[in-house]
């Protein structure tokens, strides 16, 4: 029986919230660690940040013997190939995903979409309407929160509630949380979010420099990479594992992987 491929995006119109980094971290966690078959459509034109990251990762793995051995063991021992990354514009994203699915010898569990950060880009609204789920990072900064709630409410009221499109659910989650901030602040914000009938995940991601750490020949620990799983010691305290588990539960992802 052919499995259903879920279309998912980490999406927000507020820049600097880490949607691209989260897309890579989640894709790598689910693909390399949990054994799901993942693909990425990078339609954040013109920068194509994830496509460019794959090029940097590949260049480093090819020239660094340590990372080359890691990648070889991953492929030869575990049989896990690198997940595909396709680049296009937002208006071509769904066509690109369909082509990716048709040319793959294995059904995808999830295809992640890295979308532009503005709804004004051609095709963004239609692509969002084609998603199964959207996950939106938000911080307790008032400007960020107001912008994100406006964005989430627009999607909820115009796509999810009237069932215009494929979008089954939108979920906010706290990102870049400073451990020194007081809990009552978040409880007050969560009350507002609940009054707007918006969903909120329980997992909270801390504010940490590791989220910006790519593979480098200056260090041998990996956190954010399109070719290798995150180092277990760096994962500890990042809550990426917890977020991956909660997302899998939320979207009711069946375990078709290697676990």
TrEMBL record:
Q: Where is the CobQ/CobB/MinD/ParA nucleotide binding domain?
A: 8-217
- Which SUPFAM superfamilies does the entry link to? P-loop containing nucleoside triphosphate hydrolases
Tell me the superkingdom of the source.
Bacteria
The record's InterPro entries line, in alphabetical order, gives:
CobQ/CobB/MinD/ParA_Nub-bd_dom, DNA_Partitioning_ATPase, P-loop_NTPase
- Record's Pfam families? CbiA
- Membrane-traversing stretches: none
Q: Which CDD domains match?
A: ParAB_family
The protein, known as: Conjugative transposon protein TraA
| Biological source species | Aquipluma nitroreducens
Give the source lineage, highest ranks first.
Bacteria, Pseudomonadati, Bacteroidota, Bacteroidia, Marinilabiliales
